[in-house]
Design a protein that fits this description.
single chain, alpha+beta, 4-stranded antiparallel β-sheet, 34% helix
Amino acid sequence: MRISFSTDGGFAFMPGLRKPFAVDTAELPAEIAAELETLVRQAKPSRSTPAGADQRSYRIEVGSGSDTYTLEFTDPVTDPAARQLIERLTTLKRDT
């Protein structure tokens, strides 16, 4: 599963945070790959809220084989699986 993660918005402009991040779960340790794949399947996008200047938005593009779809979230992210997915991707992005 290929996952592309990007963020936009927030209190201050930080170009390093906006830089897109992509990962292929086939290249990750099995435990991390399984966790990400489970969270992607469980994540439920929240209803669209009006974007404010200080709200951060998240875009997660998921590709598996020929299927591709996009999950979009805006703070506050209320779905626990979506919140955990965003946190995990943010950590992976920071650690690479």
